[in-house]
Design brief:
- Among the domains are: 8-42; 140-144 and 164-293, Sortase (Sortase, Chain: A, Beta Barrel).
- By secondary structure, the protein is an alpha+beta fold.
- The chain has helices at 12-36, 66-107, 148-153; strands at 170-173, 178-184, 195-197, 208-213, 234-238, 243-254, 268-276, 283-293.
- It is elongated.
Length: 295
């Protein structure tokens, strides 16, 4: 039965439905006229919808041609190639790790190469000469400028008041008249007390490099004649229970920043360090010795 209500009596939904039906009818009529006149586009029949149907939109209505299929094929090929490459890399890395592990096992307990014993930036004992303006004091100018804040911020290491049984307590070098106590540490305050053993270096008689330092022109001038030592001279170190003898093998004058002389060794060695030259103190003299006899 035909709806005879006036337009003003219809709801908004009913009006929209009427408009939709009329638009569809007009569109279908226009398409039929175009088809009868031979003006319709190929495939335009797909655009003809019955009343109440909705035209599909978005990607679901997109039809991929041969270009799209080719792109999909290329993407699939690249994905497979990537997986193959990734698998090969895993295989190669595993083989490399296996070879390295085998080399380490074959090497066994090989003797390590000497490496620096500590991360010092300058050699110990540095100071300005006693006859300089202001007298003798710690020479901060020897420290590389970019490292000075680190040195200034470093906290002093606590030193046990009583030396251990294996630590040196006295050094004797008859050739140059040295007979002095050995203390732990080589800071400004420690070197006021005697010859300082650098913390982190080995003890007498043990493998490694034992580093001792003292001043040459202040605080007793203990190492005043260190430059007079020659190869073959004897250096004796005393612990609380044992005595060790080292024989001088050579000496070298180096820059204050040449921390190479602090490097550890596989043998039992001794390095004596002091400022040089006398009353100038712009360099360091290092005397090297090797252990000759135990207790």
């Amino acid at each position: 039965m035909k709806d005879r209500r006036r337009v003003g009596d219809l709801s908004i939904e009913e009006l929209e439905r009427v408009l939709s039906v009329r638009r569809a009818a007009v569109r279908a009529d226009r398409l039929r006229r175009y088809r009868d006149a031979g003006r319709a586009l190929p495939g335009s029949a797909e655009l003809e919808f019955t009343e109440g149907e909705h035209q599909p939109t978005g990607w679901r209505f997109l039809r991929l041609g041969w270009v799209g299929n080719a792109l999909l094929a290329i993407i699939e090929i690249l994905a497979v190639a990537g997986l193959i490459y990734f698998g090969y890399q895993l295989w190669a890395d595993r083989n490399l790790l296996n070879r390295e592990a085998q080399q380490v096992m074959q090497a066994g307990a090989a003797t390590p190469a000497p490496t620096p014993s500590i991360t010092a930036v300058v050699l110990p004992g540095g100071h300005t000469p006693p006859n300089a303006a202001g007298g003798a004091q710690f020479n901060e100018a020897e420290i590389p400028e970019h490292l000075r804040p680190l040195v200034q911020a470093a906290q002093p290491i606590a030193i046990p008041p009583t030396p251990g049984p294996r630590q040196a307590v006295r050094i004797q070098i008859s050739t140059i008249g040295v007979d002095a106590p050995v203390v732990r540490g080589d800071s400004w305050e420690q070197l006021k007390k005697g010859v300082g053993q650098m913390l982190g270096t080995t003890d007498p008689g043990q493998a490694g490099n034992l580093v001792l330092s003292a001043h040459n022109d202040i605080f007793g001038e203990i190492f005043r004649y260190l430059d007079k030592l020659q190869a073959g001279d004897i250096i004796a170190l005393q612990t609380t229970t044992e005595r060790f003898t080292y024989r001088v093998t050579g000496s070298e004058v180096v820059e204050p920043t040449d921390v190479r002389v602090l490097s550890t060794t596989t043998a039992s060695t001794l390095t004596l360090i002091s400022c040089y030259p006398y009353l100038v103190d712009t360099k360091r003299i290092a005397v090297f010795a090797e252990l000759q006899a135990g207790p």
